[in-house]
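Shipment paperwork, digital attachment
Item: protein structure file
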Amino acid sequence: MRNPEPGLPGLSLPPTVVAGHLRSCAEELAGSLRGHHEAATLGELAEVVTQLVAGQHALAHALAGLAGRVDVRNGALAAASTVDVEVVTEILQAAACAAGCSAEALADAQPSFDCVRESAGPETRV
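Attachment content:
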């Protein structure tokens, strides 16, 4: 993972560490929104949706990058069955597409979510 802030030193973590952090954060978010208690204000949830759109786009790019690495043209995979490599690549490409579609669906819903937030009030707890 690279640091997006200009002028600051880059940060590089192994993909397994980043993926584990992603999973932990997603589980924490799911748990906080699944409960019966008031989780957040509509204003906060609107920001959650914005972050999820960006996250889904990033996940789509990560899956596409993974598919690009697991490719039959990669000489490092020569010992693996071509059919198996092609299946894995195709599944990763489909997952990347699905994550991208999820991001677009969330983005398309943002104007309606904004209307709900404005109608009920951004400080309304749900």
